[in-house]
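Format notes (please read before filing issues)

Several people have asked whether sequences and structure tokens are stored in separate files. They are not. Every record keeps both together, in the order shown below: the sequence lines, then the token lines. Line labels are part of the format and must not be stripped during preprocessing.
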Amino acid sequence: MKRRRGAATRSGSDSRAYQQVVQEAARLLAQGEAAGFDDARRKAVSRLGITLRQTPDNAAIEQAMLQYRTLFQADGQTKQLRHLRQTALQAMRLLAPFEPRLVGPVLAGTAPPHSPVHLHLFADTAEAVALFLLERNIPCEHDERRVRYTLETWENLPLYRFVAGDVTVELTVFPAQSLRRRPLSPVDNRPMQRADAAAVAQLLGGTT
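Then the structure lines:
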């Protein structure tokens, strides 16, 4: 009996430690003190001095971040999210020839402070996107983004990054025929949600 009580105590302790890491990682993300889920987990474990058998997954941290922002950042979150979505819609209208889709935290409503807008574009070549931006005098940086279609399948795709006002916009360029092929979300490993310009305008309550 003593052993069982001890095991239960350890289990309860593990559960409390797990929740502490979840809440701290969520706070770090909500406050803009972590660059992403992995960074938030590392910082939370380090700051709390906790060792876990299994660290929290992205979905648990995201859910806790939503709760944190609802409790402590509701007014600011609403204004910030609307600003990010307005910027996304403006960029999507500009980039209409590439059938842009909004993805990630700005679409999900979980965007932390200073979050970039993530758009998926579809083009015959990545150079077509670069030329399009160049012709409109939009300075951009070139990079790559790794996307995952299955737990074992990855692809590196071209990414262009530019600044619109005070918001960073990131464009991942997919092959033109990939519009219906959705990569997996880094949050829950399910096919990523995408929204076209009409859907984003609807989120904003109409056109802007």
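For reference, the curators noted about this record: Strands lie at 101-103, 117-123, 141-148, 154-164, 167-175. The helical segments are 2-30, 37-48, 58-72, 74-94, 105-108, 126-135, 197-203.
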